Amino acid sequence: MALFGRGSGNWLTSAAGRRILPEGWLSGPMPWVIAIMMFLMVLAAAAGLALGHAARGLDSHVYAQATIQIVDANQPRRDAVAERLVAMIAQQPGVASARRIADAEITELLRPWLGGGLADSDLPVPAMIDVVFEEGARDALPAVAARVKAIAPLARIDDHAQWLAPLSGLIGALRWLAMVLVLLMAAAAAFTVVLAARAALNTHQATIDVMHHLGSTDAQIAQLFQRRIATDALFGGLVGLLLASFVILAVGDRIAQVGSDLIGSVALPGFAWFVLALLPLAGTLLAMLAARLTIILALRKRL
Question: Bigger pLDDT: 193 or 166?
């Protein structure tokens, strides 16, 4: 039929087919509503991917570390105990490395909190040993702690996994929340398409009845709506992706300026941008499916 234009597999509808929907191309509200939803969906997905990347960073780096502090006002004795512990810990099974943190490095860490004058004074600081465990060797910590306590009973062992457990739980909860928001935005976009398709169907019921009398099938009529809504959905999805990308880049630049390794770990890895770029395409496919099912089911009920 001429109504479907030459080559019914074309992406855009013909001029006659475009008249089935009341709004002009991209002039109706649906593309802009979808753009807003895609904007929010991309932001939520980006947050979930960044939090997932941060959680993996915690698991692979911070969770595999421990810090040992030796507090002793007698500096020669403190240094001797620290060197002995470093040599002993480095030989333990499951330990990748053991490093004595230099006093100058500790002073630089204390400078923002104590001020330059006090940090550079003769204020005694504990000897600190940074212990890194091999991958999958977290069970080695109790044995290392027992050996440390045998040599230095007053040594303090800080397990990074213990004090970062609440943060890990918060990151996990926020990541799940981001996933739920993505699903809710997708559902809202699908409902928007359903409402738009039903409104167009009700508006042009008389035209659709004539098409039925001329021999058009429900699938052919649904294809007209499907193509047109897919075009609007793709446009709205690309606009939402573009706006969200600007926001993500701006927030990422702000995070980089903070200069915190912990906050800086909440960043988008390279593959995340590929995933975000697929969201408008996935949204378009969802809109096509929602429109087709809505029109076909509505036409079958009216016959």
Answer: 193
